[in-house]
Amino acid sequence: MLAITEEANEYRKKFHEYYYEKIANDLAKFEQSRKPEFAKYTLWMALTVLTAAVTICCLIYFSQIIPQGFWDRNGPGQAILSIGGLIMVGFYFLGVKVKKNFENKVKEKIIHSFLSFFGAFRWSSKEKIDKEELIESKLVGNNKHMGVTGDDYFEGTYKDVKIIISELSLDIPGNKRRLQIFDGIFVKLSMNKKINSHTIVKEDFSIKTLEGCYHLPQSFSGMDKTELEDPEFNKMFDVYTQDQVEARYILTTSFMERFKRLKEVYKAKEIRASFKDSSTLLIGLSCNKDMFVLGDVRKPITDSGEIQQLFEEFLAVISLVDLLKLDSKTGL
Amino acid sequence: MNINLISLVILVIFACVLYSIYVQVIKKKNKVQEAFASIDVQLKKRYDLIPNILAIANKFMEHERGLIEDVTRLRTEALKLQSDFSSMKNKIKLENELQSKLGQLMVSVENYPQLKSNETMVQAMQTFAEMEEQISAARRFYNAAILDLNNAVEIFPSSIFASSMGLTTLPFFEIADEKEKAPIDAKTYLYK
Q1: How many beta carbons lie within 10 A of that of residue A44, not counting itself?
Q2: Tens of pLDDT along A119-164?
Q3: Shortest distance, CA B43 to any CA of chain A (angstroms)
Q4: What is this structure's pTM?
């Protein structure tokens, strides 16, 4: 993700100085505690790999000794695979826990200094956008058994626009296992236009799995599918609305141009947006990667590449306000 | 027997196809009426706002009497027009003229610092700008509905149903005057 507005370039220049003034020293203090944590992480990951190797060796060895019925249901093959698999998963999760705990520890200390650069923002690892709100937005299907796993959560104001950023992973029950329907961030922004109805802009977000293509069930009853004046926009997105006039009030030709750029700028897999009453814009950017990482136990803490990546990702998201001109009332 | 049955099935399918075309034409006609009503609602809001703006402007804008009188006259004429398709062409012409005059008036406000800083006028101008956005959106919806209907009226086989129902093509809500299409030079209005 790279924010490419003029304001973004200004921010980059100022952040470089701010980092050395306010953040670098505090970050350096974590390097001492990172090493033992990294050792723990490496141990768990090594045990995971070792368990996998041992399991495979056992399977090969015992399948030679017991050729008859080895792979039968409830046979020795299944038992070795299950036990080995369970132990492997256990070791892996212990490693991930060490990594996550260290990240949270670093973030809790450093993130406030980092966010102070941007103004009045706060961070939480426990909060997330409400599941009911996501379902009401009609951007994530209407499955009540949808699982919502949150990671980073930011809330604040940028250029008088209220912003909430919530990193989420959503899944629903499938035929044999849970299907991931979204992995990325949802950004909630206050609109500069008063809205009384509900309009959705979405791409085709059917989920392609090994078993086939899964279409997210969603009812758009009470909403009309709308074709706007921009043929390229119509090709990229489907628009559903409760009010044809208000949909065009929000989706002006300039706004459509800016919205089309979002996918290109954020290199997102897909984008979806909901404009609902109380003048809120909810945008989902599917990125399929862990964002806002700080304090990766596997890299030196003082590696400025990590803080730079965090800065770029955060700046790119809040630059949505500049890109979509949500802070101004130009009528465009 | 088999031939009769097949003929019956073909007839039924053909009747269904004709019916669906008929329904589509009706839907498009109704959509145009809905879109027309939406514009009408927005335009009425504009007519209600105009006297407030003119009342404030009258106090301060001594040199714009001609412009103020034009706006008043156009508003009165627009209010007299009926809200139906028969007066659509006249309505569009009047609305374009009214919008042009109001635009000139808003630019001229810049010449009167007292008026520019008047709180009521500032609020009225913000409401006016908001309203113009709404009218623009309603106009776009109307034009989209008109395009659909005009296509149905002109393209076979829906054109057969359209002509039997007495439907004809309708005008788009667009700027007709070449002069009005030309970019406005603010200096013309600011430095008199």
Answers
A1: 18
A2: 889 999 889 999 999 988 988 888 888 899 998 999 999 888 899 9
A3: 13
A4: 0.76
Query: Distance of CA A176 to CAs A78, A83, A86, B51, Å?
Result: 19, 21, 19, 67
Nearest beta carbon to residue A249 from set B126, B129, B133: B133
Per-residue confidence at A3, pLDDT binned at 50, 70, 90? Answer: low
* Crossing angle for the helix pair B65-80 and B88-108, to the nearest 10 degrees: 150
In angstroms, the first-to-last Cα distance of chain B is: 89
- For residue A220, which phi and psi values (nearest 5 degrees)? -110, 35
Token look-up 């997105």 returns A237
**E-state strands within A221-287:** 224-226, 238-241, 270-276, 280-286
Nearest alpha carbon to residue A103 among A306, A331, A248: A306
How confident is the model over B28-71, as pLDDT tens digits?
Answer: 999 998 998 888 888 888 888 888 888 877 777 776 778 888 88
Please name the residue that has the structure tokens 């141009």.
Answer: A257
Coil, helix or strand at residue A141: coil
What the block records as the tokens of A182 is 């979204």
Using DSSP's 3-state secondary structure scheme, residue A189 falls into strand
Q: What crossing angle do the helices spanning A76-116 and A30-65 adopt, rounded to 10°? A: 170
Cβ pair A331:B38 closer than 8 A: no
Q: Smallest Cβ distance to A248: which of B34, B132, B141?
A: B141
Task: Look up residue B51 and give its two tokens.
Answer: 């006297």
What values do phi and psi take at B127, rounded to 5? -65, -40
Question: Quick one: pLDDT at residue A247?
Answer: 92
CA distances from A147 to A116, A142, A181, A223, B156 (A): 32, 12, 10, 26, 51
- The answer to whether the CB atoms of B137 and A248 lie below 8 A apart is yes
Distances (CA, A) of A244 to A260, A272, B81, B144: 20, 19, 25, 10
Q: What percent of chain A has pLDDT over 70?
A: 92
> What's the complex ipTM?
0.76
